[in-house]
Amino acid sequence: MVLVGLGDEIDTYNGEKELALLESVLGECEAAWLMPEVYDALRKSMHMNQEDEKMRILSDLADRLKGKNYYVVCMAGHKGILEIPWREGRLVAPCGFGTKKQCKMTCEGEEPRDLTDIEKAELSNASEEFLYASGFLSRGQDQVITQKSHRQDQVIEQEGEVIQGKWSSLPPQVREAMELIEKREKIRAAALEYKKRCENILGTCPICGAQEVLNVVQAPKYDQRGYLAEWTRYTKWLYGSMNRRLLILELGTSKKHPELLQDAFQKMSEIHTKAQYFICECH
Fold this sequence. Notes:
Mean pLDDT: 85
Number of helices: 7
Order of helices and strands: EHHHEEEEHEEHEHEHE
Number of strands: 10
Radius of gyration: 21 Å
Distance between the termini: 27 Å
Shape: globular
């Protein structure tokens, strides 16, 4: 039997600092639940060879596991993982992929529901527009806008010390701080509009009338019913692994929820007399 854990390290990429800035601003706007959509739009809008390589490796792993009795516990939100040909019913994602929506207030009468194809398409378009409106992507260039590239109001040459623009007369540290504040405000304005647009797409709860949001761990009140059926099957599978040879593969750590992956896997390897435990970091 084989137990595979996919950590949230799989979601990281070379522009992680820029993505963290988006996540921070969306959190301030009470729209952190849109991060899976933002990340997916970013992945589609850029040539992220590193991400493609990770998905190729996972596809190879799924191919090698054919015929095996295995289960995959996924803490990553990369939607490409859903496209991997895993054995049907053997993938559980406690954090959600953003493929379902839930009542913001998690009312008892309405369980998370799958998004329709129209909702998925509209969310995808809205997310892509947000990346452009926030200045995170440059149209026609398919790349992240960093603090030192593609600025319309200034030119910076590190070696020649040629500086032009709004904050050119300020000391370097002050100038960088002012530029960051300006950048955050631009993202914030775009984020508020983005949130409003996505709320209109998702609509309201048919039971209580509250706003519907994506069924992901970043939701204001995460409705865990979205994955509980898969989790129940997973725990039953674990009970069946006792006294049998078990290979545990942890691919990428989970920094945000270690209790669900590496801590649980470590304890399992200690009490399971026939288990082999391997950890592989994702870079």
